[in-house]
Amino acid sequence: MSAWSPDFDLVLLDGVIRLCCWLAAGSVGLWLGCFVVRTRHLRRDARDAAAEESLIQLVLAEITGPARATGALTGLPAWQQPLLRRVFENTLNQIKGADQTKLVDLMRREGFLQAALQELGSSDPAVRQAAAGFLSYDETPAALAALQHALQDRDLGVQLTAARALLQRDQIASLSGLLADLDFLPHDPPLVLSDIFARLPASLHPEAVQLLGTALPDEWKRMLAIALGRNQVHAAFAALAALTRTGSERVRAAAWVALRELGDPQVGELVGDGLRDSSATVRQAACQCAAALGGPDVLPPLLALLAEANWGVRFAAANALYDHGREGRQLLADHSQQAGDADVGRQVLREREREDTRGS
Amino acid sequence: MLGFTALQYLLYSLHTILAFFELRSAQRRDRHTEEGWLLGAKSIPGISLLVPAYNEERTVVENIRSLLTLRYPRFEIIVVNDGSTDGTAAAVIAAFRLERSELQRPPVAPCQPIRGIYRQRDFPNLLFIDKENGGKSDALNAALNHARHPLVCGVDADSLLDHHALLKAVRPFVEQPGSLLAVGGTIRIANGCEVRSGLIVREGTPHRLVPLIQIVEYLRAFLIARLAFSRLGSVSIISGAFGLFKRSAVLQVGGYSHGTVGEDMELIVKIHRKFCDAGQPYHILFIPDPVCWTEAPETLAQLRRQRTRWQRGLCEVLWLHRGMLLRPRYGRIGLLSLPLFVLFDVVGPVLDLAGLTLLPLCWAAGLLDFELLAAFFAVVVLYGIFLSMIALVLGELALFKTTRKRDMLALALAAIAENFGYRQLNLLWRIEGTWQFIRGQKHWGEMIRTGFHRPPA
After folding, report:
1. Strand B114-120 relative to strand B99-101, pairing
2. For chain B, which residues make up each domain, given as ranges?
3. Closest Cα of chain B to A254: distance in Å?
4. How confident is the model at residue A210 (pLDDT cuts 50, 70, 90)?
5. Is pLDDT at B454 greater than 50 in this prediction?
6. Residues in A touching B171 (Cβ below 8 Å)
7. Looking at the domain B9-333, which fold is it?
8. Is some CB atom of chain B closer than 8 A to the CB atom of A157?
9. Is residue A338 in a domain?
10. Which of A23, A190, A351 is opposite residue B382, by nearest beta carbon?
11. Going by DSSP bridges, is the β-strand pair B47-53/B151-155 parallel, antiparallel, or unpaired?
């Protein structure tokens, strides 16, 4: 029998081997490229680390030293300019008050703030965002105007950085205008918006309260409600109370969370409705609110919730009873003596009493 | 046989291209959600870390210390001692001065009886559960029952998480709330790295060839195969060493299944099955950046035990969920992901090894030309080098930050060396694992831990 080696197979095989050779050689070449770049980076990183260390010392000497060593930072080689910028960025985040003001002055003297104004026109969104971050420390009218302009940037990151800076200085005239500028989409990170709401200055609170009653998307409304509660905006009470009845399930739950954060005793008159809500999530949130603010009227509905099918609600109700004071605890203890649905009651009593004993 | 090899290589090439695109998209996606926003945000979802431990006396304390230092605003660590026969429980209780607690939670997911629950006021987010032995799934279920947060993250007790891993892994949950059920991250090998206070302070490479080659192997598996499947929307495995799940979704499928050694893959496939059956929209992602470090086997004997176990786990899952194979109602998982596993991970090793042994025999018997034999081996080796070098390039783009020159060279040499013997051994172990599955073997085997490398005092 002769060996199997038909001609056409050999031609095909030759092509396949050539292809594999090219692939292997190409991948090795790519890796070599990475190797060269990495080697350069390692060398550069070592050099930069040493230079950055000395720049930090120079900057600290400039802003905290007894006598200003003005001019120590001028005449730096071009490769050290980005390092100096990084030192400024890092130091700005770490210091406050008069030292921060001195640092901003130093940055202005060194021309970094003027450069940031120009960088806002860059085509690279990362550069624009960094520039907006830099300008957020600058109190000059030019910087404020540039940040206002950055609110209309096409990049969300730049817009948010500008918005955060302007909110901090109470330079936003209208919350709805800001939301329109930001043009949030459903796929944008909702936490970012939550952060914006948490930073609202007092001047925007009336408008924010008004917005709760409008057709904002549910997710926004939910975050706005919680932010107003956490910021103790008492004028929002009526709007939040209305939300507990009219919003979607998640919005209603958020409204109860907000009311609890607000800590207004009037909530005791409403919380019974929340405890009877059709949604388990809302009932759970209302339980927590009842624990903090409810009067004696909430005890019967809380006790009724101990027989719920939903474990989370039972647990929240038992905790609420425990937190309600002596009367609530007695009711919980009586209930936990019964068989059947008393599992959660016993568990909460055991855990909480143990915690209280340790605490005392 | 040659046709099968050609098909295999064609698909691997396609995976490589998809992985490049997915890596680029993943790097772009991260830009808007800065870590600062996430850290400062009060409404970020809390995470319960589920840490099953069985005979992990040497590494468990260091691992918990590392987890306690994670950069994340709201998380708890639930360590479960799964009836260890060594001093795991005593080591944890002593190291963290834990005290017995009366805490009880309803057993939503089934698990063995709990002997005791321990906590300490100084570490309010650490809970230690001591329970009867029931296997890894059982321990994870016990932890799941006690989890308080909406997201749970399975972490092996022999693994170390990157400082920012949770912040990176939670991003997709923040950005796509609702339909996202799970996110997997990359597992890297810690052998040779310098660990201080439970953190990797310097990346390095091990001196031994076996773990060195596994670094390349892991990069290939995570940065080519899983990224490509993520791009195709058909992630069917998230490593048990590090994966973030929506707790409600895990409970909806009854928690982790008992009696399987591939509980991580089984859970993901079960979730796919449940949600496809229910017609609920959902998705599962793999993102390359959150990194978990694990200790790899140092010897061939340990590696063989691990690989045969993995293969048995894969076979079990494929057998358990054979009803999903080639069924259009299960979408890309049923039509693409699972069939590819059957083809390339169960049938493939048999065909590959048959090729590697039969072709030289045919040549020796004078049935095959030497040129054909040499060409076959050249293609196998060259393509193997191509895949491994591309994995190193992807690793360089996505993960490496502080690699030294000598580490890079060592990895490149390992990428070439693995084609001469290591891959062939792997094929053999896979066939052995499949055979063990057919014979009904269930044991886990033992992994000997040496502990993470610490700098000299």
Report:
1. antiparallel
2. 9-333
3. 11
4. very high
5. no
6. 189
7. Spore Coat Polysaccharide Biosynthesis Protein SpsA; Chain A (3.90.550)
8. yes
9. no
10. A23
11. parallel
